[in-house]
Hints:
Blueprint: E1 8-11, E2 24-30, E3 35-40, E4 45-50, E5 59-62, E6 69-71, E7 81-85, E8 89-94, E9 100-105, E10 113-120, E11 126-132, E12 143-149, E13 153-161, E14 164-169, E15 175-180, E16 185-191, E17 198-206, E18 212-218, E19 224-229, E20 233-237, E21 243-248, E22 254-260, E23 263-268, H1 279-283, E24 288-291
Parallel strand pairs: 1-21
Antiparallel strand pairs: 2-3, 3-4, 4-5, 6-7, 7-8, 8-9, 10-11, 11-12, 12-13, 14-15, 15-16, 16-17, 18-19, 19-20, 20-21, 22-23, 23-24
Amino acid sequence: MADQNQVQEWHVTEPYLDLHCQLGEGPYYEKGTQTLRFVDIKAKRLHTVSVTDGPDSLKTLQLDSPIGVTANIKGQDPQEKILVALKYGIALLDRKTGQYDYLTRIGGETERLRSNDGAVDPHGRFWLGTMNDFHVGEPQTEGSLYRFDLGKTSEEIVKGLIIPNSLGWSPDGKTMYFTHTPENTVFAWDYNPEDGSISNKRVHYKHEERGHLDGFRVDKDGNIWHALYDGSSVIKISPAGKIVGRVILPTNNITCVEFVGTELFITSAADENSEEGTPSKKYGGGLFRVDVGTTGLDHTEFVLE
């Protein structure tokens, strides 16, 4: 729980991009081109917008697979190729043609599963959570957390998950954070940089207020900025596991965040349960931005070989 007298607040009243994503997710800032890319998982789209040129620069790439998350690849121009997590595993995506080639397939290629969220660890390994695809209905305990080394091998690290969500690392790289949405909990592990192994699992933060923990990013001071689905907000969780800040937004289903300098860009999903004409219904699926006065940790690129 938060001490409301010590919680800093920011208020956002309208979206930066009002594009009505079905399930906006996975924002990723490309410093070299000053562009932000993000996905619409349900609509199978990759969106890209220049943060210098503004909303009119939006470009959309339509795919034939749900796309959960993306990452840059060491030695590759991200305007040409990036790593993407698709229906059956991780793939190389040609951003000009929309064609992709799977590097590694996971989950036995079952139609019941899809990729969800993931991230590259401080040493270039890619971690990815899988869960039941939309057509299955209510997610079951069939999801897993995988680790990919050098793009060739995958190892199932955690089994029996329902909705595995964001991952991140502390500024010193010694702690890995992972959110399991059904438990509304951010777990922490000790992280071994030599082999990518994790140990000493513990609860870092348990959410007991409105909303469900979705995606997050870690800032330079080790705070976790965590989106709350059905919570109309992003909470700032201190390294001690306490809420110390909150971004209030006009729509319910907040999904993930990304730092662009000191600004926080925030994705959201459509609000199918609110009444027509309400701000939540109107702005659901929009992309928001707010200056929060701090910066995030830089992304590590995926080491392919």
